Amino acid sequence: MGELETLSVMGLPIHCGVCYEDWLLARHSQGLASHVVTLNAEMAMQADQNPALKEVLCQADLAIPDGAGIVLYFRIKGKRMRRYPGIELAESLLAKLDSTQSVFFLGAAPEVAEKAAHNWQIRQPGLAIAGVQHGYFSAEELPDIEKRLEQLQPTVILVALGVPRQEFWIRERRHLCPQAVWVGVGGSFDIWAGLKERAPAWFCNNNLEWLYRLYQEPWRWRRMLALPQFAVRALTYSSGREG
Q: For the chain, does the N or the C end have fewer beta carbons within 10 angstroms?
């Protein structure tokens, strides 16, 4: 299965050194559940102000370098790594599922979740979709959703509820599917449903996908302030686990 190398930024783990998809599917085959966190600067800054979120992120089985700020931080520290957006991990993971394995889509608006799953069925006809559940459910509906997951036991559960809700949601319910790979995928359903587009390859390859998102959604400018704040905070953070 390989050994993860664990690094740290602002007291949060980042893992590297293995093929993430193979590592996760190997854990699944061994009867182990996995909670995957796709760490970026905004999430790190939220965790810095929210101890409960930081605890969840620190307990994740796998934390991948989703954000440009994370990658650039480690480059400054002398550690080169490739940015691996959560949407790419999810896509690669689904591509590796065999006919006995399945995926559950949970989150986003009703029509978005259904469209995302539908487009995946077209994209990968052999993909077994265990179920689809939008994210606009009530507290009264939650027990039925939990029962569905427990009965279906999907291999991969993609949770698109946004940060930090999806991270807490996974932590509190991973016991329902004790062999599943749980991945918080944020706004990925919007892209798979065709409502939004990812940045062109040049932006992605040069760690500038955040700039393209700002161009698409100018209202996000306040959230983008997390990038310079993260740079200052990360480089001044003192911890024996850093590096």
A: C
